[in-house]
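Memo to structure team: turn this sequence into structure tokens by end of day. - J.P.
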Amino acid sequence: MSVNPVHEINEIDFDAEVLEAGVPVLVDFTAEWCPPCRALAPILHRLAEEGAGRLKVVAVNGDRNPALARRFGIRGLPTVVAFAGGREVARHVGLTTKEKLLKLIEGRELSAGARRDRAPSPP
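Reply from structure team:
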């Protein structure tokens, strides 16, 4: 069995891992108790392996990082938020397919909750 290419990040390293990344990033807001989150994990794992070097996939445990969940308005799990160039470009709430996640990161498909022109967070 291979090492999981989706590593967990937290409030301390979020900005460096996501907002300052040189590649697009999918952030999976998840929780251990969440069955759809567990079903989504292998899909994200595959995406991370296949996109290595071109795409980064990270996980944020919403229970252990409530400030991050609040910062990004996470109201349901799983929520996958796509970032490019340090900005949120799209998001999807709930279980989904690999193809839909690829479209999110490519910016071709925005869910109703996506915020394309989000103002920067105050310091």
